[in-house]
Structure formats: C-alpha cells, structure tokens
Amino acid sequence: IKFKFVEIPDQRIVDPKYMDANLCREVMQGMPLPEGWAVIQYTGLKDKNGEEIYEGDIVDINGANAEVCYYSGSPMVKAYFVNHPYSYLATFDEVDVEIVGNIYENPDLL
Questions:
Q1: Please, what is the end-to-end C-alpha distance for the chain in angstroms?
Q2: Residue bearing the bigger pLDDT, 57 or 78
Q3: What is the pLDDT of residues 35-68, one digit of tens each?
C-alpha cells in the first residue's frame, strides 16, 4: 500500500521519500500524525497517462471533474452537479480518467 502525506496548513502534498523515515514508519504502524498533517492512500489505479491515482485527486472524466475517494473500501469518484446540491458516487475505469489536480492544492477545480 502506498501513501502520501499532506501538509494541511500549506495544502502541499509530500511524497514519503522526502519525509523522516521514523515518522513514516510510526504512521504506518498506527501512530497518529502530527497536528496539521493528513495521509492519502494510493487507489491501486492509474490514469490514462500512467499516473498513480490517490484519494483526494481530482480527475477529468469526459470533460467533468470529480474527486477520488474511498467508499466501503473501494476507490470511487464523487461527482458534483453544477448548480445542484447533490453529488453521487460511482466506480470508474482508469482508462477513462486523467488526473487534473487534487483537493488540497487545486480545490477550485471542483
């Protein structure tokens, strides 16, 4: 299982290879993260360009942006309707999607 860390105050994603090895090991063993950090998990899927898709990524699906999330242990996309208060969850085929950003660094894409 792969993870990345998000530094919440700066809204910046940090690859574990740039983090302190002891902190990474402690987090993977269930220790709480320091305040101001979050962990995002790799979905096991890649987009049409071969980029790894993580929860919190924003993907383009046929011209519409959607947030990647987990629901009942499966990677899903949460799509939002413009000018409508509802969203829906759906599975997706990695061939049909392209990562365009993430909810931490590019929230304006949703």
A1: 27
A2: 57
A3: 877 888 888 888 889 999 898 899 888 788 888 8
Q: What is the pTM of this model?
A: 0.75
Cα angle, residue 98 at apex, residues 94 and 102 outer, rounded to 5°: 110
For the chain, what is the HEC assignment? Answer: CCEEEEEHHHCEEECHHHCCHHHHHHHHCCCCCCCCEEEEEEEEEECCCCCEEECCEEEEECCEEEEEEEECCEEEEEEECCCCCCEEEECCCHHHEEEEEECCCCHHHC
Q: Which amino acid is at 100?
A: V
Q: How far apart are CA 103 and CA 110, in angstroms?
A: 8
Asked if 33 and 43 count as a contact pair (C-beta separation under 8 A), the reply is no
pLDDT average, residue stretch 68-87: 69
